[in-house]
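Morning, I've got a small favour to ask if you have a moment. I've dropped the whole record in just underneath, so have a look.
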Amino acid sequence: MEQLPVCPHCAGEYVYHDTIHFVCPDCGHEWAEESVAESDEKVFKDSNGNVLQDGDSVILIKDLKVKGSSIVLKKGTKAKNIRLVDGDHDVDCKIDGQSFSLKSEFLKKA
């Protein structure tokens, strides 16, 4: 069975083929088969849906407890010069001189 692409607009995975177009039922986006040949590069998005890139600055949107420590990263803390990585925690950054791996869903682009 042929592997269908994900939606280039919302990254939805429930895409179907409609004779000459691919259709995403989540956002209603339609695109031609020729535009499917995009790179398989992962897109990292913040909590608001903004695309994150290496070197961006981000702000925490909620208090986060650091596992195995008594440290709590407070809401509103800014992290500069982030680095995007593959994995469960997809953002590496330094806050107050300490390195942390965070999930992009708890961040917003500054």
